[in-house]
Amino acid sequence: MGVEISVVVPVYDEEGSIDKFLARLLPVLAELGVGHEVLFVDDGSRDGTWQAVQLHRRSAGLDGGAPCIRALRLSRNFGKEIALAAGLDAALGDAVVFMDVDLQDPPELIAEFVKLWRSGYQNVYGLRVNRDRDSWMKRLSAALFYRMFNWVSDVKIPLNAGDFRLIGPEVVKAVRACRDRRRLMKGLYAWVGFPSVAVPYERPERACGRTKLTAMKLLSVAMDGIVSHSTAPLRAWTWLGLLCVAGAAVLGTALLVEWFAGDRDPPTGFYMTALVVLAFSSLNFLTLGIMGEYLGRIYGEVKDRPLYLVRDDEADGG
Questions:
Q1: Which of 70, 78, 94, 93 is nearest to 9 (CA)?
Q2: pLDDT tens digits for range 128-185
Q3: pLDDT digit string (tens) for 172-218?
Q4: How far is CA 104 from CA 131, 132, 208, 317, in A?
Q5: What whole-number distance in Å separates Cα of residue 308 and Cα of residue 63?
């Protein structure tokens, strides 16, 4: 039986989560009655995650046979977005399901995803109906990111839609063709288009493990997403510059009129001058910083390095 459904699972230091995850996922896949595989992408774990995955592969007795549990080990930690891209490249199935290992993405929804895919949808995504179990800081940051992204970007991401989704063959092919090094996968799913549908669900608490996403990592992912899908930050400074030029012209004209009319002595105001100079100097540095973000990404792209590197641990028995 060929592989029809690939489940791609990025993992990073999730040694204690593998058993519980597979105990819930495998029965769901078996009930589908189609060829399937579970592809773990070890994103440079420092614990026994790789050994735990290999143990399940060997206990299933599928080494060298029809694939069911497979594993890909990256040479270091490249980040979740690149791990998802690596899994997508290696997946054998016609359709690919992305999900996390912490069981906040209920495996039971996969059957509904497959049903909708077979009815014609190429992008079936889980939509979290509430985030009550998340901290207030995470809820606030997520709400700000989604709204800011959709405001500045030409493509729109549905609010509270994550990576938990099924993408059909057309979307698989399209996203594989996108080789952005600094990427936001949710943005790419929206950018490629194709018929999409949401499946609302209640997101439970983590069944095991703890999140590896720090505030700085979340900020970095948000910056990558906005810069990758919008030039609005650059365009905003063009409009701000024009506004400042217009304001300066109006103010200068008013001062000259009052001066020549004899109603005012030549302007002095050292402190006001210093304040204006400092304010506009700060704007210049901020503008250069935004330009630097774009130039840095251009520099990363033109180097044309591979997106990721894979360790060949099979050769040495790893």
A1: 70
A2: 887 666 666 666 666 676 677 666 667 777 777 788 999 999 989 888 888 877 777 8
A3: 988 888 887 777 788 788 888 888 898 888 877 766 656 655 566 66
A4: 11, 13, 9, 33
A5: 25
Q: Which residues does residue 95 pair with via DSSP β-bridges, in sequence order?
A: 5
CA distance 259 to 144: 48
Contact between 234 and 290 under an 8 Å Cβ cutoff? The reply is yes
Length of the chain: 318
Cα gap 167→272, rounded to integer Å: 58
Burial class (CB in 10 A: 0-12, 13-18, 19+), 220: middle
Task: From residue 98, give the alpha-carbon distance in Å to each of 55, 67, 105, 180.
Answer: 22, 18, 9, 19
Contact 185, 85 (CB under 8 A): yes
Helix (H, G, I), strand (E, B) or coil at 209: coil
**Alpha carbon distance 214, 220 (integer Å):** 10
β-bridge pairing 123-128 and 196-201: parallel
Share of the chain above pLDDT 90, in %: 14
Distance separating alpha carbons of residues 211 and 205, to the nearest angstrom = 11
Please count the other Cβ atoms lying within 10 Å of the Cβ belonging to residue 118: 10
- As a whole number of angstroms, the distance between CA 127 and CA 190 comes to 14
Three-state secondary structure call for residue 88 = helix
**How large is the C-alpha radius of gyration of the chain?**
25
DSSP H helices in the chain: 18-32, 49-59, 80-90, 110-118, 136-152, 169-176, 185-192, 215-229, 232-260, 270-302
Quote the DSSP letter at residue 310: B
Other C-beta atoms closer than 10 Å to the C-beta of 19 total 12
CA nearest to 232, candidates 178, 317, 290: 290
- Phi/psi of residue 149, nearest 5 degrees: -60, -50
